[in-house]
Amino acid sequence: MTIDKNILTILENLIPFPTFILDDDGRVIDFNQKGKKFLPDVTFNTSIFEVLDKEFSSVLERLLYESKTYEKSVKENILTQKAEHSDEYELSVVPFTDEVQKTFITTIRLLNNNKGKKESRRFTIVTEDMSKIIHDDKLFEIIQSIKSAFPFTFIGKAKIQKQIDLLDGFFWIKDNTRRYILVNQKFATVLGVKAKQLEGRFEKDVLPHFQNKLYSTIDTYIFETTNSVVIDGMSSSSPYGSNSYEIVEFPIVDVDNNVVALIGISQPTQTKDKSAYGNEKKLLELVKNIGLNYILTDPKGVVKTFDDGVQKYISGQTELTNNEILKIFKEEEVLQEIKKFLSNDKTEKITLKISELVELLALRSYDESNITSEILFLFIEKQKVDSITAGILKMYDAIMKISPQPMFIYDLENLKFLEVNDAAIKLYGYSKNEFMNMDLTDLYAPEDIQTLLESTNRKSQTNEFTGPWRHKKKDGSSVIVEISKSPLDFKGKSAHINIVKNVTDAVKNNKKIKVFKSAFENSSDLIFITDADGFITYANESVIRTLGFTKNDLEKKPFLSLIKDDDRAEFN
Length: 572
Prior knowledge:
The chain is an alpha+beta fold. Helices cover 32% and strands 28% of the residues.
């Protein structure tokens, strides 16, 4: 094949990024110098798929097919992730037809170079009601109607298609083989096709390689657990302009609680107004009503807000906002304790003496992900303690209501529950009235009660989480928890307030890992683990003894290199 010299001149001099001219089978007809630099192994008349990385190859193969089939230009962004950095590229295919032949101009353009950075995404496992996850009422109504109508009739499907095409964000439904049942046009447009062209196609044949691996893992998790997953920190190809967004995937289940389909939606990332900010506002109003002087900081100790009354405790300081809490106090002992408190996320609170008459109480507040959201520093004058005791109790009550973590207060003398929050009611399954007629031993199996009594008598160590402990739920099942306990006077009684962290899944996973590791290491069978490309990442002791290799010898060695030539076809 020959290409017009004018085209070649433009290719070499005017296109400032790697460019290749391909035939309809993907064989290279020509390329510019930047293309040669990007793919050093490229030569004329070779298949470009033989020299491209897998991330690019799978996407280019699909784009070339779409460009040939629909005779249009197509493009897609690809994010490549390496150990130290990630790069985002735009891969485009433009059909070019003259009187003799059809060719395709393919360009690979680097959009950004995030050297030293990794794209940060947060994955949240959600077990809450959908109304608490979906921000938009209209979108929530559509989802509810889909759940009640699934599987669709032809008319029902057409009606839903009209509704989802009016949405601002992405929307898709996949069956349990990850084949698209329904998508809206907003989502299809990002992939360079029409919505109807995606129906019936497998997700793995549509998404870029790195995204396919991500969603495959998430989908498998949802199928096995029926939980929902929120992927935060999305920014590329945003349907909301320059605003970041999150992806939510959740299951449609049948009467036997089997997952029959998955719904995926996008929505703008919610700003801190409904949850953390609302809790912060309630807490500050309560502190003000009690009459305490306070400073509120972020998790690193940078001042966000304060009341004017704190000036009498910190001489020489006028402007506190955006100042560091460590620069406000002068006493070395106080500074060291605050510094330790800021660096230890597990410490719930500390009390420091800053003068003969004034104590400083630091309280850590957590969000739904058990991450510190802010720290409240309260100045308490000793002569005021009695007059504000009722107010402090109100504050504990408010904190318990606000906290997403299970909390309860119990009497140290008889271990009877004195107060319990909604999160604890949800975790254990008992109603509040039932809790008020129980004591702490009711949460423990008979064989664990002696351990409980011994731990109750021990002095609490700096409010850190201890455990794990096994607790009983109302339905008889067990839950593994870690507990942080703090002493307090509650309505004239010596009590403990316990903060409970559910670590059941983490403990189970650790046990599984230990069991598998033990089974692998002690097995007489030869056991290998390889990566997706067939390179060995693990071999047990039987392999070492039988084959005579060291673990270092085997690391990153192709598994097929250990197989006889005649037998390799079976493994391939």
